[in-house]
Amino acid sequence: MVENSVSTATSAPGVLRCHPEETARDYLERGWWQAETIPEVFAHRVAEAPDAPAVTDPSNLADLTGAQPRTLTWRELDDHVTDIAAVLLANGIRQGSTVAVQLPNSVALTAVYLALWRLGAVATPMPVSFRGHELSGIVAATDAEAIITVGRLGDRDLAAEALTVAGGKRLVFAFGPQRPDSVADTGDGVAMSDGPSGSRAAIGDEVDAEARERVRAYASELTVTVNDRVTICWTSGTEAGPKGVPRCHGDWLAVAGGVQDGLAVSPESVVLNPFPMVNMAGFAGSFLPWLLAGGHLVQHQPLDLPVFFGQIAEHRVTHTAMPPALLTMLVRNEALRAQADLSSLRTVGSGGAPLSPPVVRQWQQELGIQVINFFGSNEGVSLLGAPADIPDPMLRAQHLPYYAAAGTRWSTRLAARTAVKLVDVTTGETVTEVGGRGELRLRGPAVFGGYLPGTASTEPFDEEGYLCSGDIFELSEDGRYLRFVDRVKEIIIRGGMNIAPAEIEGLLSDHPGVADVAVVGYPDPVLGEKCCAVVVPAPGASVTLADLVAHLRSREVASFKLPERLEITDALPRNPVGKILRRELRDKL
Question: Where is the AMP-dependent synthetase/ligase domain (predicted)?
């Protein structure tokens, strides 16, 4: 039973809410949250198009895990979700249980989330790149009752790693096939291995009608509100330890609705998801907009260009995401572009690093594909430059809508529901003048309610309840758009002058010899800090510091912002969602 009147619903034991009840009630009454839960949205999609393709595995899944890739229709996905839920239910997973999930993008990952939510359980997703250190910390912080993983991933035995973390105190469910020296092999299904009783049971295969009916009966008796916790995601941890970010049905679907509007995802869309489905990028960028609209979700991981291009051509993908470096590479490298049939693509989302305006223009004018600038965070920042709002690709590359702009109506439903302001981090004053810079703060139905206790020393809200994003933006000349400057903590201070690494990176990314670049500060005994450019050269190119300085001078960049040191590297260190790990770079200087 779904209880939409938050104030009268009685929580089941162990069920936690993400927001104060008065906040949730207000969002529902205003229509800022929809009354349906994620399982109800899924049920609508199954009823509308039961025999249409719903979700497809990565085509290289056999190389990754040994399991054969498959496509499921909405009806088949619904049955698969029920079968997984049946075994979880039989093994003690109930409403309020927290389960750690470490799976690559796949049909299995999609179905596991939906199975947990059908039972009223909470998923705490973890990138497959995490190992014992990260796993054990997350399992302990969330008091997870079980871990769901995969038998093997490449040359790693994830099931064995999970069993070590579980220590005989928690259940471990591992998608097969398994390594012969690890847990029980159940073909393409899942094995539950070495729980507290040492028992083993098949999961993922079809269950009998009686087991399915038990799931339906259990789910029908649940009291659920849209404010119930469904995930605990984790911040990227680029500068410190990751923090737990609880999310509920209401705020996840609010974020997803805004993205769906901006991307124009529809039941006819084919969405190729290359981002790990573990946080804002994967959930809000692909998974939940697909679930809201319907259509076909094609999973991909890790980024493998021949596989990626093959999936676009085979499934006639209409929407996907690419890192900025790949966007640049494709327009500059005709031989690489010739390997890809991009004729079905309509929209490409990108973010995580500055976009090059000429590159975004080329994608639109030469390829007929709109590139959308995304900017988001697990805590609730959700901005995107929809073509309907910013038609000019040169402007859209580096600008985002300023929801507080007077007299402007934006195309996404989230815009009118989100209060936004820029705040000078030194004076605390609200920034209103054009060209002014300040920290982005926002409040609304997409913003989370607070960190998981014990994972953060402070909450990121000001006295008015606005989320302090930690991101510095500049207000455009007409007062309608925002341009990202940099993270507050990443500003380089050279002799009292502030330098935004992201600004310099965006300019250097246009240099033909630069494939990827990061700008970091390094200590200087006189000036405090100076700039170092860490560059991945383009194939066959050589780059010198003088080249980079000349490139920036040609764009009339202030002298104090110029890099004074150059380091060449084969690749930049990034976290699982593609953000540069600047601390690692600084530690090496």
Answer: 42-452
